[in-house]
């Protein structure tokens, strides 16, 4: 079931606590009482339909925004994606690194060092991916909004290089679950794996928002301006 404007905001959180960081990216904090999604969006000056499209995309992998919902101002999406990047950089990645250090220090084996190396290489690739979107994709969308069409970059360029960052996270989880045999701290390992799993899910949702909402809107703008 998808969320609607009359859904109580508290019920939205109760149905999926993974939405809490998403709400924070909209500047929404707890203390909803019996207010609906529409009530909160009105108070915060948030586009209600855009908010619903984002949260429904997060909780339902099969959710597709209707054609009417694809009329959003793309700057809303760019702003949301930038806030998500900042959340990853300032919170998710450092938190997972702290958990990894705790796990590695609990075993100090060669395999632990391999896991640490794998993760650090992944983080380097992750930051390159984010920098590319911040330096190329987002400025391009902002140019289109201002009716400036640039033949040197197209959304198809982004689609070609838009790699799935969650796949390497999955590889790392598999490596640990299937092959980690030496002494290690059980709780530290469980904590690290659960954090990785949650991060992987967030990345999948993030990619769906780009692919299902941003890309169709930008293609439409390109068609009008070319």
Automatic annotation (TrEMBL):
UniProtKB keywords: Cytoplasm, Iron, Metal-binding
Hemerythrin-like domain boundaries: 77-217
Pfam family name, one: Hemerythrin
Keyword Transcription: no
Subcellular location: Cytoplasm
Organism domain of life: Bacteria
GO terms of molecular function: metal ion binding
GO cellular component terms, semicolon-separated: cytoplasm
InterPro entries on file: Hemerythrin-like (IPR012312), RIC_family (IPR019903)
Protein name as it appears in the record: Hemerythrin-like domain-containing protein
Organism the protein comes from: Tenuifilum thalassicum
